[in-house]
Amino acid sequence: MFDFDVLYKPARLNQAADALSRRPRTTSSNPLITHSDFVSVAKLSILPTELQHTTVDCELNAITCETSECLTFSSYSKDQFREFQLKDPEFFSPRKFWNEGRKPVAGDDNLPNDPETKLLLREWDKLLEKEELLYRSCDGNDQLLLPKVLRSEVLSACHDDTGHQGHKRTIALVKTRCYWPKFAKDVTEYCDQCDRCTRAKIPPKIREPLRHMMASRPNELLAIDFTLIERDACGKENALIVV
């Protein structure tokens, strides 16, 4: 059916195929696409005539962009953030010490009794102020001190809006943006109480407990095993044990 002969060729002699596969690709003398090439390709478009536009030559000198004020809260202004921090009772004492320019020390009569505020004051050396907003510097990130009124929104944005990730990833997302005392605990509780995550969890399989095999008559249950014993005078050493 096919007019050819199959011949065996040793690998050390079969160099033609290997040489062809290693042949370098020739580089074009003009690898860049010119404007005329682009126009010729654009004319092949199958778009309707009313949607086709002629190309226009233009030069771009600079690109300007504005960064959002907050990655998590693009709908709030900095003035609103300042108001939220000033009205939050947890931040009242830290803000007072900060405005007075003195570090809180043990035995100070103005130290608060609130445990969350005490935890925040322990981070005093990491606090900084930018544009009248208090931040906490940690691992190269400036974390905004987040008031209570915004924490539920942050938890929803970092957990619900990012695919309902687990505790560790949600904590990492919050940590790069903001800070408040015991935020890791709040994130864990939020993830545990998430209705969608709870319904998506697969319930554990209940295994059947192990029971003894009961026999009702002789030889109903047999256990067979092969073992190797010391060789006897006949040269036999394999034994079949049946119980």
From TrEMBL:
What protein is this chain from?
A: Pol polyprotein
Superkingdom to which the source organism belongs: Eukaryota
Q: Where is the signal peptide?
A: none
InterPro entries registered for this protein in UniProt: Integrase_H2C2, Retrovirus_Pol_polyprotein
- One Pfam family in the UniProt entry: Integrase_H2C2
Q: Can you give the residue ranges of the Integrase zinc-binding domain? A: 147-202
